Amino acid sequence: MFDLDLWREIFQSINKNRTRSLLSGFTVAFAILLFAVLFGLANGLQNTFSEAFNDDANNSIMIYSGMTTKANKGLQAGRRIQFKNEDYTYVKEEFKDKVQFITSRVYRNVTATFRNEKNSYSVRAVHPDHQYLEMTIIDQGRYINEMDVKEHTKVVVIGRLVEEDLFLKTTALGKYINLDGIPYKVVGIFSDDGGDNEERLIYMPISTAQRLYGNTDYVDQINLTYNPEMDYDQAIAFGRTLTNKMKNRFDVAETDQRAIRIQNMAEGTKAVGQMTTALGFIIFVIGFGTLIAGVVGISNIMIFIVKERTKEIGIRKALGATPRSIVSIILIESILITAIAGYVGLLLGVGILELAAPTLETYFIKDPSVQPSLIIAATITLILAGAIAGYLPAKKASQIKPIVALRDD
Predict the structure, then answer these.
(1) Phi and psi of 140, rounded to 5°?
(2) Under 8 Å between Cβ of 78 and 67
(3) Which of 112, 308, 326, 357 is least surrounded, with the fewest CB atoms within 10 Å of its CB?
(4) pTM
């Protein structure tokens, strides 16, 4: 295997038959390149789907209120549906076995000031469970707790970028921030994988917002996560039951799609799962077909190589070469060309993905990449398949008598 003369012979053969070697290498390199690009694009799409849901719980259900568009039970169309604290309590108690976390939301825009710094932000007044629905990461301090809600405490949890905007030379934790003229103590600082918009939010206890901004028990939205032990079909059925119950509670017609709307992540997650599975299967079939084409190409070239070198094999045998040495020199040459070409194809595939990555983001393909181990496995598959395909004709040729091989046309 490490015989210097053997390797010198192999390189001489490759140099002497450059066209044949280039064609062999091109078949392998193109197969690996296409394989890498296809799987990279598939991974990019999966990354896009994952990023789209990474800042919220993927088992969440959001309940929105709106205006009725149809008359029902003697009530006219055009009624404004307004949720209250009692509706939050109803959902929490009615479906307690199916609900994991639940919160109400009240939205408000405020002007926040600290010393000489001022900026406008959105406030979300929430219950403590909201942290788990939004997957909020507490970097310093704590989140809103039940005591804050019970005592109507004037505390806030601010996003990382709010601290950067307003607290230029000091930490925000423990300081007081002024929101529309009312001071609130900063008890926590959070970050969120959802990006800059999510990190420029301010959270406060829902009871505090209801008392200070209107003295009402109104809520804008009710969010929850369903029991994670449910499968997608059970979660979708639960969402429909929840919709019907809420419509009955507010005397809304069953066919009214605007008065009460429910966004169930199970529906989207199931659709995405089905699509990625189908996409993965298609990519696998195409990738497998590419490898098969590469194997066929290598096999054909190996057969041609053996046929072309029949006289050479006869001369070698006449000079005393063993069948094993003849088979070895042919297979080692093939394996060397395949390995080099496979590596070149891998580099080209990865390079194309990296160069195209910024453009592909426009088409919702995020960070397209492929695991090197997968490409290496595909290359090894091609090498082994080509070696096996070439071994039989090489073995057969090595067993031909020298005089017969020399007479071969």
Answers:
(1) -140, 145
(2) yes
(3) 308
(4) 0.68
- One DSSP character per residue, 109-152 reads EEEEEETTEEEEEEEEEE-TTHHHHHT-EEEEE----HHHHHHT
CB atoms inside a 10 Å sphere around CB 217 = 16
Binning the chain into helix, strand and coil, the percentages to the nearest 5 are 55, 20, 25
| DSSP secondary structure letters along 304-341 | HHHHHTHHHHHHHHHTT--HHHHHHHHHHHHHHHHHHH
Residue carrying the six token digits 């301010």: 202
At 346-374, the pLDDT tens digits run 888 888 888 888 777 776 677 777 777 77
pLDDT of residue 53: 58
Please tell me what DSSP assigns to residue 95. T
Tokens coding 397: 């040729």
Q: Are strands 182-191 and 155-159 parallel, antiparallel or unpaired?
A: parallel
- Token readout for 318 is 């006449």
What 3-state DSSP class applies to 190? strand
Comparing 23-37, 88-102, 297-311, which segment has the lowest mean pLDDT?
297-311
